[in-house]
Amino acid sequence: MAQFQHRIDEMTDDSGFLGLVDPHAYTSFVGADWTLEGLFERVESQMRQRTMLLWGTGGEEQWRIDLSDSPVDPGLPIIRQIAGPITVTRGELVVVNLDTVTMAAQFADSTVGDDRDIYGSGLELPNGDYICTISQLTDPEEDRTHEGPDFHLQLQAGRTSLWLEVPWSEL
Fold first, then answer.
1. What is the per-residue pLDDT across 43-87, written as a single tens digit (0 to 9) for each?
2. pLDDT confidence of 101, banded at 50, 70, 90?
3. Residue 109, exposed/middle/buried by CB under 10 A (0-12, 13-18, 19+)?
4. What is the C-alpha separation between 133 and 96, in angstroms, rounded?
5. What does the alpha-carbon distance between residue 11 and residue 3 come to, in Å, rounded to a whole number?
6. Calpha distance 170→136 (Å, rounded)
């Protein structure tokens, strides 16, 4: 795989959750009357199928996100870090916020990829299994200590343990 570096300059997060999704494999529609509990059951089921990773951000912010096959810049602080598995089935992953996930859960004609052009959040990758290491580099409850990204997502070919629940979540 050729080296890649992608930046999302401003991802709105009004719910305290971000995610990485294969928009072609993730089953998004839950129903018009979905509940948060039902939605998180769907998300956790999809995480076990490696179609999505969803994590808590610790706050509601405008996030800067770097995606790369390289590790975090060693000059940046890592507040917390976790790795999870995701599979690319049709050459693309999309970074999403929970608002996008809930819209796709409620409306059959919406998908988790609907906002990719708004945020510049689509990423082309070869099909296959990946390990995504998510590093949170800023604490939303503290003053910024650097001008770098808030999150760094490192994607490398490989497999790792499944996520059984949404990490860094208080729900």
1. 999 999 999 999 999 999 999 999 999 999 999 999 999 999 999
2. very high
3. exposed
4. 16
5. 23
6. 16
Cα 79 to Cα 149: distance, rounded to the nearest angstrom: 12
Which CATH number fits the domain 5-157, given the four candidates 2.40.50.180, 2.60.34.30, 2.60.40.1180, 3.40.718.10? 2.60.34.30
pLDDT digits (tens, 9 = 90+) for 142-161: 988 899 999 999 999 999 99
Whole-model pTM: value is 0.95
72 is written with which tokens? 């975090």
Tokens 């080296």: give the residue. 3
Beta strand ranges found along the chain (DSSP E): 5-13, 17-21, 52-56, 61-68, 80-88, 92-97, 122-124, 128-136, 151-157
Section 10-33 average pLDDT: 94
Token pair of 58 as six digits: 């610790």
What's the token pair of residue 136? 């949170």
pLDDT at 171: 72
State residue 2's pLDDT score.
56
